[in-house]
Amino acid sequence: GIQVEQSPPDLILQEGANSTLRCNFSDSVNNLQWFHQNPWGQLINLFYIPSGTKQNGRLSATTVATERYSLLYISSSQTTDSGVYFCAVNYNQGGKLIFGQGTELSVKP
Amino acid sequence: DTAVSQTPKYLVTQMGNDKSIKCEQNLGHDTMYWYKQDSKKFLKIMFSYNNKELIINETVPNRFSPKSPDKAHLNLHINSLELGDSAVYFCASSQVEAYEQYFGPGTRLTVT
User: What's the rounded Cα separation, in Å, for the pair A69 and B79?
Assistant: First the structure.
């Protein structure tokens, strides 16, 4: 089956810093989503981005489907950005999402 | 105005008991899912239903039985609970398969 790998596994930032999270996948995909799991456990949709670039405030994402990777950019990080960021892909019928192992981000004041 | 809701939020029970988790979505979506998040935060699909029909059953023990009374609801019933069933269970929905999925708040199940 498809493999989804995220890097780095952990990241510690000072408030105001920028960061880039990476998601590599081993096969062609139908869709790709980025989620933020906050410290209370909620999974929040960030981007639905099977290809191209999208921006939402301080966050943006780029998926290069032909090269099988996606990047999530966080600019001017805030303490509320702390949590785990997941990349998930769908590659076959049925809609199931295959999740990466996540990047745990901690933003210090 | 919750999009995907789950009850209960927390569930603590003893080994051998039977329990259910309920999920409802008010987004008008056709497809619903159950995912399990283990203690290492790894998320894995368990089931998906499209318009009340089972589409995916991911080698889950048959102690787990999903039921979809209508396309807005997908419940998860677990028989003879085991310690290893302790996890957070997430319900999700999407307009159709392969479209953007939206997740509920999760149900933390603890089996003692």
Answer: 40
Contact B44, B112 (CB under 8 A): no
Q: B108 in contact with A at a CB cutoff of 8 Å?
A: yes
Residue A90: its chain B contacts at CB < 8 A? 97-98
Q: Does the pLDDT value for residue A3 go beyond 90?
A: yes
Q: Which of B48, B90, B103 sits opposite A96 (nearest CB)?
A: B48
Q: Where are the beta strands (DSSP E) in chain B?
A: 4-7, 10-13, 19-25, 31-37, 43-50, 53-57, 64-70, 73-78, 87-94, 101-103, 107-111
Contact call for residues A1 and A89 (beta carbons, < 8 A): no
Q: Which residue has the tokens 């290809």?
A: A51
pLDDT band at A7 (very low <50, low <70, confident <90, very high): very high
CB–CB of B98 and A90 under 8 A?
yes
DSSP state string for chain A? ---EEEE-SEEEEETT--EEEEEEESS--SEEEEEEE-TT--EEEEEE-SSEEEEETTEEEEEEGGGTEEEEEE-S--GGG-EEEEEEEE-STT-PPEE---EEEEEE-
Q: What pLDDT, in 10s, does the model give residues A29-86?
A: 989 999 999 999 999 999 999 999 999 999 999 999 999 999 999 999 999 999 999 9
